[in-house]
Amino acid sequence: MSSLIPQLPALQVVIPLFAAPLCVLAGRTGLAWFIALAASATATLTAAVLAYLTYHNGTISYEMGGWEPPWGIEYVVDTASAFILLLVASIGTMVLIYSPASVGKEIRSGRGHLYYCMYLLCLTGLLGIAITGDAFNVFVFLEISSLSSYALIAMGGQRKALTAAFQYLIMGTIGATFFLIGVGLLYMMTGTLNMADLQTRIPGIQDSRPVLAAFAFITVGLALKAALFPLHLWLPNAYAFAPSGVSAFMAATATKVSLYVLLRFTFTIFGAKFAFLNLPLYWVLLVPAVFAMFAGSFSAIFQRDVKRMLAYSSVAQIGYITLAIALASSAGVTAALIHIFNHGLMKAALFCAMGCIFYRIGSTRIDAMAGLGKQMPWTMTAIVAGGLSLLGVPLTAGFISKWYLVQAALQSNLWWLVVLIVLSSMLALVYVWRIVEALYFKEPVAGNEGIREAPLSMLLPTLLLAGANVYFGIDTRVPIAMAENAADLLLRGQIW
Amino acid sequence: MLQAVLDHYNYWIAILLMMIGFYTVVARGNLVKKIVGLNIFQTSVFLLYISMGKVTGGTAPILDERFSVYSNPIPHVLILTAIVVGVATTALGLALVVRIRESYGTIEEDELDLLDGET
């Protein structure tokens, strides 16, 4: 066992990667699900051990294949990446536990094992992005996760899922290619792809044109993958028409991982001074973030499909995270990381709950689910808990996010930003209220009389995720300790 | 001025192709043409990488006593990976186009928007 520990960074990625083709070979949906769950649970355990080790003993560096960095590919686990690994792996596992019933309903029979294969590849990609210390390797994993998520979205039942997946494929590829151009320009100037090595070489040449262009390309490419307003156009349809499990998994993790890479490149590689003093990254992030908060929430209010509403809400929430990054302070980065974590919990719970409703009534339209509050009380409990967390009501995880965000804004003397944050939260109240109103106070729709609660296999993970929203609103020790530690690490030696 | 352009002709070609590809993706309504544009866009980046690895007077990076100057093979290897990604993207994109055509009966973007009710 103890001989395994040094190999954990590699196993983190390799286990889900090798389990993915096994799912195809398994050929049967049930068996494939079991393989996927085992791989994903192992990944969660690995991430937890890595998080524990890095938090207590400091950063772990792993030489892939024994090739010494900067020539070989280096995997680096520090608290920031361990935090993201833990989020991705645990949400991935939760959603997998949730999946069998919804896959049986939503995926054409005989395709289930392929679904799990794609799901594991997507998980592999996201974990790989978080763990790697090599700039080009980020691109490779970014494409692994993207290509598998295009395929997953296209598996959605309605034909609109196809156009949504195509649109995402076009925009996602442009984003990833922009990132690739940026990394190429950096390689051209520095001759290295290792992140730590780039960090030491960039300061000497930071005013050269290719480095400036590289920074611009990387930022725009990542903003596209993270769906930062106005580059979010692929997101609403992709989340609305994907199968329920995919929506939950992707909404909770995919855009977050891109934001993590943005944090990495901005603070670790280029350095806050370069990005925020030499270049106007502050305004470049702040203005779209504020627009995202309002445009996303406004669009959410007018949606008739709840999944689409939640997708637009994600656009707004990504705005909050980007806003916190733009503050470029220790408090800001902490708030960003906390919200990355908490928003993952909220959206996973809410999209899972929508999957439960879809399982029973075959729709997530708001007028189709009127009056279901009495028939599906537990699903509704999850929706209410997730909704309150989304609003930022005290005793939910969302409140902790908002609290840290407001504090970070105040610390930077931006009281008007606080006003905007509170105002846009009011908008969230409107759309969350629309869901609650429909569920509890509207007359039930004809034909919904015989609807019962969702099966336990779906309900239990949904409630656990909803419970996590409450739990992490009360006991905030772990995420906050990790986020603060990670923020210190990202900003190390850059307090200004 | 002209000399500056000629000295870096490889970059100019890469940027020209990049813009042609990008324009095609944005401006064309036909989904297959969009994929073609995407391919041109990606290929331009391949050229950017490959040409940056060239060392003036260098040969192919094969160890031999007679030569001491080699081109840098790393960008070439990197781009091999990116080409594989590009092929996978194209294959997946075309597969999606086939299925869109099967269920909508068209691959023109404006007609698709009409059928989706999103005009």
Explain what you see.
The complex is a heterodimer of chains A (496) and B (119). Chain A has a domain at 280-496. In chain A, 76% of the residues lie in helices and 2% in strands. Chain A contains 19 helices and two strands. In chain A, strands 1-2 form a two-stranded antiparallel ribbon. The longest helix of chain A has 32 residues, at 330-361. Chain A is globular. Chain B is mainly α and 119 residues long. Helix content of chain B is 73%, strand content 0%. Chain B contains five helices and no strands. In chain B, helix 2 (9-27) runs antiparallel to helix 3 and helix 3 runs antiparallel to helix 4 (73-104). Chain B starts with a helix and ends with a helix. The mean pLDDT of chain B is 88. Chains A and B meet through helix 5 and helix 6 of A and helix 3 and helix 4 of B.
| Global geometry of chain B | elongated
Order of helices and strands of chain A: HHEEHHHHHHHHHHHHHHHHH
Helix content of chain A: over 70%
Stretches of chain A where pLDDT falls below 50 for ≥5 residues?
A: none
Tell me about the biggest sheet of chain B? none
What is the structural class of chain A?
A: mainly alpha
Rg of chain A, please? 21 Å
Shape, per Cα inertia axes of chain A: globular
Query: What amount of the residues of chain A lies in strands?
Result: under 5%
What is the gyration radius of chain B calculated from CA atoms?
20 Å
The succession of helices and strands of chain B, N to C, reads: HHHHH
Work out the strand percent of chain B: under 5%
- Quaternary form: heterodimer
**Main sheet properties of chain A:** 2 strands, antiparallel
Strand segment count of chain B: 0
Top CATH class of chain B: Mainly Alpha
